[in-house]
Amino acid sequence: MGVNPARTQSPRPLGANIFDDNRMTNNTKENIVWKTFANKNHAKYSIIRFGNCDLIEFINETHNISIDNLTRYRTVSLSTVSESFTRAKAEFKKTREFYFKIRPLNNLDKISKLFGKSKFKLLNKNYIYITNALISSDIFISNSKIQDILDKYQNLQIELYNNINIWNEDIREGITQLSITIDEISKSEIELNDLFILIKEFISSLHKHGMIR
Questions:
Q1: Selection from 15, 83, 88 nearest residue 58 by Cα
Q2: Which residues contact 205 (CB under 8 A, 6 or more apart)?
Q3: 188 near 103, Cβ under 8 Å?
Q4: Could you write out the DSSP letters of every residue in 13-58?
């Protein structure tokens, strides 16, 4: 996902901060875009200084909706490369145990589908849907706003977490977290707005079918 091989760092010790500590906290172009978007949506904008991440909290929305960005590091051939992401998150109380993931369709998926060995469903021409079978993909396929935004982007990752997410962040007991991630730090209000609309539409679809409260 979005690895920038040109940006290398000296290897960090195990357990070191995975977030970017080199990004400036003053008014960069990205900061201004995020601040403007937050103001237009009556949201709270802040910088999380632990990782110099932008954070937008939609204080007038239910389910603790937020959008933030972060950079993490991984080791490739004895060098450390950085990966930057923008993610929208929401939290809600569980009504039952369930799981789903939506990710881009890749070549291996196409081969599996061709030979009838796939364990996923196509959500549209670009994305596959994986679940524990408690949530039908139809509830998302029938939502035109979800489909329109999925058609617009090729690199979204959408996933539901119950205990700990891929960022190694603990999730409170009894709480489920929905996360929508896109490669790179967003530099446009349009992209931020699409993420905001998308996460609200997923929440609406899940709520409508009694999966969350």
A1: 88
A2: 139, 140, 143, 146
A3: no
A4: PTT---S-S-S--S--HHHHHHHHHHHHTT-EEEEETTTTEEEEE-
Q: Does residue 213 form part of some domain? A: no
**Which tens digits make up the pLDDT trace of 63-107?**
999 999 988 888 888 888 888 999 999 998 877 778 899 999 988
Distance in angstroms (rounded) separating the CA atoms of residues 90 and 111: 34
**Lookup: tokens for 126:** 């670009």
Please give the tally of structural domains in the chain: 1
The half-sphere exposure of 137 on its side-chain side, counting CA atoms within 13 A, is: 14
Contact 203, 178 (CB under 8 A): yes
Residue-number span of the structural domain to which 177 is assigned: 3-208
